[in-house]
Amino acid sequence: MTQPDTPSPKSARQKWMAVLARASAQELADGLAALPALPEAEMLRAPETGLVMVRGRAGGDGDAFNLGEMTVTRCAMRLGAHIGHAYIAGRDHAKARLAALLDAALQDTARHDAVMQTIVEPLATAQQEARAVEARKAAATRVDFFTMATMR
Amino acid sequence: MTRLTPGFADPVLDAQASFRAILEAMSRPGRIQRIEARITPPAPLCSAAGAALLSLADADTPLWLDAGDAAAEWLRFHCGAPIMADIGAARFVVACGAAPSLDALDIGTDEDPQLGATLILQVAGLVAGEGWRLTGPGIQHEHRLRVIGAPDGFIAAWVRNRVLFPRGIDALLCAGDSIAALPRSVMIAEG
């Protein structure tokens, strides 16, 4: 999944939900195991898989078109008074459940900092590094095209 | 924040079973059906009304309800249905307290009579074999149904609804986990 060069301003919750959605189920499970145990959570919407139409726009000013359909799994869980949601690419139900649970824990001010430090921040750094490595590899093969008009 | 409770335990099978019960109720007006799905919708919604809404309502069916914020939030979450302030714009009207006047509801048009609203009316109890005498399509001789806590003047309002046919409203009566249906074609006489 690629990021636009200039991301639109996002809320803190959008940022952590994006990090959780990009992480693997294993990474989320490992992070959760390192935290103090969470209380019993209630499943509001069991993980369900469906298709979402992804729309695109060429050059930023073209008409929106349907790029294609994407498999998305969503889940909602309640932890105390907070409701966590997860929308993830693919059909990994365990990951959707973990991401929803962590989203609920992150909304709880008593747990927010611990979850941020143990799970979200390390994952965000790792994801950013992986993106930078990929961008460097791609940049090495970049070809610049000049039009005749600019060369004259 | 109000406490959201889960919807159907098994969204596919429970919705199918509830839909089947509603279909059965609609095809045999006045016969009481039980909805088996175990759900706990927020008060004051009863489980039959909650299950009927989870089975029937979705993003294309505007709702109107008098059941309070907790129920509205629950329905918005589980059905994705828009909640209307204007009762005449709603496809499903949920009445837990005083029943709204039937004349205020959308009755559809002669071209599209299926657009008429469905009234989901929560009553205190349903008893078969006594009370109202129902006749009409789906009933061989007559069905008897006693509706405990039926709104005053319901039969007179139903007579006015009956003459609008094919336009009109349909009603689903819910009490606990029991439902009975009054499609717009049924005729009701005092028992």
Helix content class of chain B:
10-25%
Strand content of chain B: 15-25%
Physical arrangement of strands within the biggest beta sheet of chain B: 1-8-7-4-3-2
Task: Say what oligomer this is.
Answer: heterodimer
Low-confidence runs of at least 5 consecutive residues of chain B? none
How do the SSEs of chain A run, as a string of H and E? Answer: HHEEEHHH
Bin the helical content of chain A.
40-55%
Global mean pLDDT of chain B: 92
Query: Which stretches of chain A of 5+ consecutive residues score pLDDT under 50?
Result: 1-7
For the terminal residues of chain B, how far apart are their CA atoms? Answer: 47 Å
The total strand number of chain A stands at: 3
DSSP helical segment count of chain B: 4
Structure notes:
The complex is a heterodimer of chains A (152) and B (191). Chain A has helices at residues 12-22, 25-34, 93-107, 109-140, 148-151, and strands at 42-57, 64-79, 82-89. By secondary structure, chain A is of the alpha+beta class. In chain A, strands 1-2-3 form a 3-stranded antiparallel β-sheet. In chain A, helix 3 (93-107) packs across helix 4 (109-140). Chain A starts with 11 loop residues before the first helix and ends with a helix. Chain B is built from 4 helices and 9 strands. In chain B, a hairpin with a 7-residue loop joins strand 5 and strand 6. In chain B, helix 1 (11-27) crosses helix 2.
Task: Provide a brief overview of the structure.
The complex is a heterodimer of chains A (152) and B (191). Chain A has helices at residues 12-22, 25-34, 93-107, 109-140, 148-151, and strands spanning 42-57, 64-79, 82-89.
